[in-house]
Amino acid sequence: MASSVIPADKARIKLFKEMTPATQKLAEEFENKIGHAASNVILTQHILGARISAIMDDEATYGSNAIEQLATYLQVPGGTTYLYALKTFADTFTRDYVKQKSAQLMSNKSTLTVAHWLHLTKIHDDKARENMLTRVLAESLTSNDLEKEIRAGTAGSVKNTRQGGRKPKMPTNPLVGLQRVCDLSNKFVRFESAASTAVFDALDALPADRVTDSALARTEATLVQVKNTIEKAQAMRERLEKSISRMKKVHGQAEPEKTEETAKPAASQEMATRKKKKK
């Protein structure tokens, strides 16, 4: 007999119904255990964050370089950046709140992750943060989905948003860089057809209640970025045309490399010329 723990999505509901009652009971038991395990991982990270906050408040005891030392000694993935993010996590949410929400399953029976909580800390307003968490649970948003929502501005204003991303890594040689330029250009062109309907047509049909300050700001910021992209693309085009023009001239002037096959006719011609001179 199925209980209220039946998975929400159709494929899982169908599979659940195909199980024997005994297997259904096991599925529910394992699902609960997995949920508790995920919740315990999150609470452990919250405890670490609270400890980091206490360490930073007691520099006289732990020293001014304690966080860096711990990150290096423990070989923490993400280093000090991750440890500081845990501190923000603990400062933003109480342990009881995290425990309560982490115990809740999403509509597809997935669980919240530490990454979900770290992304939520970026939302400035408490109410907006709560609304976004409700959406995550109701719509089964992955941590990547949540990050995209926050970056798109649909979750409201964010804390200390870094613009532009990391500085790109320098290519090892010009041809590698050229391939990178080609790949990025191709992605942009291919996305245009999808953006035409999924983005621009959708924006034109956006209801008034969803035309928020953040939505307008994001649209205006995107326009600025697109204009900047056009300018950079034009500059790249001019540089490429100039490079191609030069390369064609150099390529035409370059003496073809002599191979063994091309060297034989030349040697024969030289010997024939010498014989004529002797006569």
Explain what you see.
The protein contains 12 helices and no strands. It is an all-alpha fold and 279 residues long. The chain is extended, with a radius of gyration of 31 Å.
Write the layout of secondary structure elements.
Elements: H1 10-18, H2 21-57, H3 59-62, H4 66-74, H5 79-92, H6 95-102, H7 114-120, H8 126-139, H9 143-152, H10 174-204, H11 213-253, H12 260-278
Which labels suit this protein?
mainly alpha, 73% helix, single chain, 279 residues, extended, 2 domains, 12 helices, disordered N terminus
Question: Secondary-structure element order, as H and E?
Answer: HHHHHHHHHHHH
Structural category: mainly alpha
Report the average pLDDT across residues.
81
What level of helicity do the residues show? Answer: over 70%
CA-to-CA gap between the ends?
Answer: 113 Å
Structural domain count: 2
Shape: extended
Q: Count the strands? A: 0
